[in-house]
Design brief:
This protein has helices spanning 15-30, 54-66, 68-75, 108-113, 124-139, 148-157, 181-188, 212-222, 239-248, 262-271, 286-293, 306-310, 322-334, 336-350, 355-371, and strands at residues 2-6, 34-38, 80-83, 100-104, 142-145, 164-167, 200-204, 230-234, 254-258, 274-277, 298-301, 315-317. It folds into two domains: 2-171 and 354-371, 3-Layer(aba) Sandwich (Rossmann fold), CATH 3.40.50.2000; 181-350, 3-Layer(aba) Sandwich (Rossmann fold). The longest helix is centred in the C-terminal third of the chain and has 17 residues, at 355-371. Helix 6 (148-157) links the parallel strand 5 and strand 6. By secondary structure, it is α/β, with parallel strands linked by helices. It contains 15 helices and twelve strands.
């Protein structure tokens, strides 16, 4: 089967979506399929300027005007076209002779554009774009949601949709595993303050829905009773968050690891006391299963899909209940038996999210829509 994967516009720097497309490509190739990755061409933004100010609008021209013909030409050669990110569903044609599948990671921006409280407000142009994304999803022959929670949103917002709506969970996009102490130490030796094991970890960005404010409040509650540092991996802290850390008196105990590679991130998970993940809204929540695959206990919010993804192998708290997050972290620090039990359950749960299983689900879906069954 020849599959064309529609990937993301490189200057948008959507790293998780770039990783998802790479994971799909590698998995389909391993399964014996012919794969072509087609991406919107950065014709006007060859220097890769970030999507801010005028460059945001230049990106729209690149993506939605200048790239259409290139992507259409690539799709003509396929048995299946798979749009790897629902934000690119605008590329699904109104009269498709070749079946199109779209992976729907979340509908938070669409919901925000409709006025729903998802921490994703939209400008006038943003609302128009989200309307186009919904229309594109309706044109696809199948929409594959990464979680049951996302499926619920899709059923509601695509009311009357005639294609196939299915759940196809994400897989681990790197073979995260448990590491020995020497490997952890060697990988993290360049990071000050992390020479000894034991830190609290948050992986993600400064988006409001990621709720780094709660992470800081949680750590401030723990700080008098525990000497370990707090590690933020991913996007560097914003000025507002640094000011909050200063006001809480914990700024000197924070370590920022900006955009760590997979090996460093794997070592961070392995050496952590726990992953703190108080996200208010998610489509899936990759850090949860990444941490579990490394034996790192997870303390995350109780908002779906996080309980679904964590599979009963995490401690859940109210998204803004820093007192509950702090109590859970201290309990893990004091109770080795509890920590070991949650770690074992997490390892078992992470085993459900293999790339082979994900690819098998997609290939089955491809065959169904290609054969009309």
């Amino acid at each position: 089967m020849k599959i064309v994967l529609i990937g993301n516009y490189a200057p948008d720097l959507q790293e998780s979506m770039l990783r998802y497309t790479e994971m799909m490509r590698d998995g389909l190739l391993e399964a014996g399929h012919e794969v072509v990755v087609a991406v919107p061409h950065a014709a006007l933004n060859r220097a890769g300027h970030s999507a801010a100010g005028a460059w945001k609008w230049i990106g729209y021209v690149d993506k939605y005007l200048l790239s259409q013909q290139v992507l259409t030409r690539a799709a003509r050669q396929a048995d299946i076209v798979h749009v790897c990110d629902h934000s690119n569903s605008v590329y699904v044609p109104s009269a498709a002779h070749i079946p199109h599948v779209v992976t729907c990671h979340d509908l938070l921006a669409v919901r925000g554009a409709l006025g729903e409280g998802t921490d994703c407000p939209a400008s006038f142009a943003g609302r128009l774009l989200q309307q186009g994304i919904l229309r594109g999803l309706r044109r696809a022959q199948a929409v594959a949601c990464v979680s049951a929670a996302t499926l619920v949103d899709a059923r509601r917002l695509l009311n009357g949709y005639r294609g196939r709506l299915v759940v196809t969970p994400n897989a681990l996009n790197y073979p995260y595993r448990r590491l020995d102490a020497d490997t952890i130490r060697r990988r993290l030796e360049a990071l000050p303050g992390l020479r000894e094991g034991g830190w609290l970890l948050h992986v993600g960005s400064n988006l409001r829905r990621k709720n780094r404010e709660c992470v800081l409040r949680t750590f401030a509650r723990i700080a008098p009773y525990w000497r370990g540092p707090l590690v933020f991996a991913g996007q560097p802290l914003s000025d507002d968050l640094r000011q909050q850390a200063q006001a809480l008196g914990v700024a000197g105990r924070i370590v920022e690891v900006v955009k760590p590679d997979n090996e460093v991130l794997e070592a961070l998970y392995n050496g952590a006391l726990a992953l703190l993940f108080p996200s208010r809204f998610e489509g899936f929540g990759w850090p949860v299963i990444e941490a579990q695959a490394c034996g790192c206990p997870v303390i995350c919010s109780d908002r779906e899909p996080l309980p679904e993804v964590a599979g009963g192998a995490a401690i859940h708290c109210g998204a803004d209940d820093d007192a509950a997050f702090a109590a859970a972290a201290l309990e893990l620090q004091r109770d080795d038996g509890l920590r070991a039990a949650i770690s074992r359950r997490g390892l078992d749960n992470a085993g459900r999210y293999s790339r082979v299983a994900m690819i098998e689900r997609f290939v089955s879906l491809y065959r169904q829509i290609a054969g009309g069954t």
